[in-house]
Design goal:
Blueprint lengths: L1 H25 L4 E2 L4 E2 L2 E7 L8 H14 L4 E7 H7 L4 H12 L4 E7 L2 E4 L13 E11 L8 E10 L2 H16 L2 H7 L3 E2 L10 E2 L1 H20 L3 E2 L5 E3 H7 L1 H5 L5 E3 L6 E4 L4 H8 L11 E5 L2 E3 L15 E3 L2 E6 L4 H18 L5 E6 L12 H17 L5 E4 L8 E7 L5 E10 L2 H4 L4 E2 L5 E2 L2 E6 L4 H11 L13 E5 L5 H12 L5 E3 L6 H10 L4 E5 L1 H6 L2 E5 L3 E6 L1 H13 L3
Parallel strand pairs: 11-15, 19-20, 26-27, 26-28
Antiparallel strand pairs: 1-3, 2-3, 3-8, 4-5, 5-6, 7-8, 9-10, 12-14, 13-14, 15-18, 16-17, 18-25, 19-21, 21-22, 22-25, 23-24, 28-29, 29-30
Helix pairs in contact: 1-2, 6-14, 7-11
The chain binds one RNA strand of 74 nucleotides through strand 7, strand 8, helix 6, helix 9 and helix 16.
RNA sequence: GCCUCCUUAGUUCAGUGGUAGAACGGUGGUAUCGUAAACCAUAAGCGUCAGUUCGAUUCUGACAGGAGGCUCCA
């Protein structure tokens, strides 16, 4: 398998050169950016003299095929810096890359030629254009040169490429399938949440059903954090700017926070984008002894972030959301235990949701120290400590350079949505800095005042984002414990409603979320509706059931379960709910 | 915020330079029905604001909202 992957990457990379060659033929005055292979395909960044549109993609794709079929040999050559500069003198972006390489001490640079097109590239490539497999250009996007907002925006053309036509088609089919489980689509179909232009973008309104799912997620997180000693607190949604001036958020995130103006005071207020500063003030409200530590508090308060409009998506990126957020204030010798406790809770959560994930050790970027608070020594120390915890506990992880929080390194849990995009969910963060800035202290056993360490953590991250990911994960078919409606009772005719009502009451007494479909519709239609609503259990109430006293149960997963005693059904469903199956 | 694209009833979708149809859903009625859609009737809409035009839902622009990227994500 690994070899095949390497070949695919090489082939996709060659496909990006093929794309560039085709674009050059159609737009001779184009300037080239870069064009790497990516997951499932490739892209190339161009600077067009006049903008192109979606309609140009088929033409370019056609040209790519023509060039491919000419069976050009793809030949690599090392050239001197000087020669490269001469060769690419019409290409400003390439010249910039050549200068960068020169600064890095390179003496020679690789080039690859394919027909009339030569690109700056270290390769490797397929030997002949005919070896490039099946491809399709998929979309057009703007992308900043070298990934910086300060640079010019180039036009990026994305494509997908596979070895065979079958693989390409199966990938495109997979995408079409993924679209069906998109949480924005399912959220609407299942009536979980809505948006309103009057309320504003990124501000979801949860219906009773959606609010029920959200509440279950919160309850579960709360259960898990209670088990490891966290106490739920409640703090306001806004505060004076001063709080964020002390924490350092004001300077760094001022533009990303909503400002609130009072009619009566000159004080500047902000809606809070996170809970940590508030929690420091609960800690600071009393004298703390080393014996009191760790102090663990958790908060589900709404958070507000003034995200740029183009950054919002469904429930995964919002302007109002909450976190199953908690902070532990502890002594240095307690850090490892605290970490492992939280990690344990996170593992239970993700196992219960049957979620796949990976762990990232998020470190700072030494070359951009301005993005972080605190001294390098503190960073060295805390990053080393975090890494130790991961290694000692044999936890698989990858390193995310520059992904640290402003105040410290993190251990992040990432998962994917149905389109394969990665999202951060759980996180545990080590912070030596915030407690210092807020001058938090405790009295140690030797009578000395010392500064506690702060651990920031979230079990599923933002329950709203997590709900979006869960909807896609389950394709809308929630396990019974999460399902907004767990049982739907379907009376066969009006005469059965009275028995259905009694049954509904009996189930509600056991805290089961139950609905009754007493509309004057056919049974077939009621069943169809309940199926589309993805209700885990249907109970059909008719003459037969009235006579026998048994229940006709239909399970979403297993189909018709036949006649069951009420007691037996209750046992089954309450067990499933309790065990979160 | 930037690039490309999109916006027609509550929803999913047709359609036109001379102001629009379907299905489901809603409402009113008839049928009381056994494991994925009973039947009849009925109400309801061209995102907003400008411009071009005799006339704009249709063409152009701005704004709003949405999609895919980029940037950002405490």
């Amino acid at each position: 398998m690994p070899n095949q992957n390497v070949d695919l990457e090489k082939m996709r990379h060659s496909a990006s050169h093929l794309l560039a060659a085709a674009v050059l033929e159609l737009h001779p005055d184009v300037k080239f950016g870069i064009g790497p292979a990516i997951e499932n395909g490739f892209y190339y960044d161009f600077d067009f003299k006049s903008p192109i549109t979606d309609l140009d993609l088929p033409k370019i794709e056609q040209k790519m095929r023509e060039i491919k079929n000419k069976k050009y040999v793809v030949s690599g050559r090392q050239v001197s810096i000087k020669e490269a500069k001469e060769q690419f003198k019409e290409q400003p972006y390439k010249l910039e890359l050549i200068s960068d390489l020169e600064k890095e001490g390179e003496k020679e640079i690789g080039t690859y030629t394919l027909g009339d097109f030569t690109d700056l590239c270290r390769g490797p490539h397929m030997e002949n254009t005919s070896e490039i497999g099946e491809f399709k250009l998929t979309s057009l996007a703007g992308a900043y040169w070298k990934g910086s907002e300060k640079n010019k925006m180039l036009t990026r053309i994305y494509g997908v490429a596979f070895a065979t036509k079958e693989e390409l088609e199966s990938y495109l089919n997979m995408l079409a399938e993924a679209e069906k489980r998109d949480h924005r689509k399912l959220g609407k179909e299942l009536g979980l949440f809505v948006f309103s232009d009057l309320v504003g973008s990124g501000l979801p309104l949860y219906t009773f059903k959606g609010a029920t799912v959200r509440k279950e997620i919160l309850n579960f997180s709360n259960e898990l954090q209670k088990d490891i000693g966290y106490q739920e607190v409640h703090t306001p949604n806004m505060n004076k700017a001063d709080l964020f001036k002390v924490s350092g958020h004001y300077e760094k995130f001022k533009d990303d926070m909503f400002r609130v103006v009072s009619n009566y005071s000159k004080e500047e207020y902000y809606l809070k984008p996170m809970n940590c500063p508030h929690h420091t003030q609960i800690y600071a409200s009393q004298k703390r002894s080393y014996r009191d530590l760790p102090i663990r508090i958790a908060d589900f308060a709404n958070l507000y972030r003034d995200e740029k409009p183009g950054e919002l998506t469904g429930l995964t990126r919002l302007r109002c959301f909450c976190q199953d957020d908690g902070h532990a204030f502890c002594r240095e010798d307690q850090i490892k235990d605290e970490f492992m406790n939280v990690l344990g809770a996170i593992k239970i959560a993700l196992q219960t949701y049957k979620m796949e994930y990976r762990i990232r050790l998020s470190l700072w970027d030494e070359n951009h120290r301005e993005k972080y608070l605190g001294e390098p020594e503190v960073w060295e120390k805390s990053q080393k400590l975090l890494e130790e915890i991961l290694v000692e506990n044999k936890i698989d992880y990858s390193v995310g350079l520059g992904e640290a929080a402003m105040y410290g390194p993190k251990m992040d849990v990432l998962t994917r949505d149905s389109l394969g995009r990665e999202w951060q969910i759980s996180t545990i963060q080590l912070d030596f800095i915030m407690p210092k800035r807020f001058e938090l202290t405790y009295t140690d056993s030797d009578g000395q005042e010392k500064t506690p360490i702060m651990i920031h953590r979230a079990i599923v991250g933002s329950p709203e984002r997590f709900m979006g990911i869960l909807i896609e994960h389950y394709a809308g078919e929630f396990p019974v414990w999460l399902a907004p409606v767990q049982v739907k009772i379907l009376p066969v005719n009006d005469a059965m409603i009275v028995y259905a009502v009694a049954l509904k009451k009996a189930l509600e007494d056991e805290n089961i979320r139950v609905e009754m479909d007493d509309r004057a519709e056919s049974l077939g239609k009621k069943i169809r509706n309940a199926e589309l609503e993805k209700v885990p259990y249907m109970i059909i109430m008719g003459e037969k059931e009235k006579e026998s006293g048994k229940l006709a149960v239909r399970s979403k997963k297993e189909g018709d379960l036949g006649a069951i005693d009420l007691k037996e059904f209750l046992k089954r469903i309450t067990k499933e709910i309790k065990e979160k199956q």
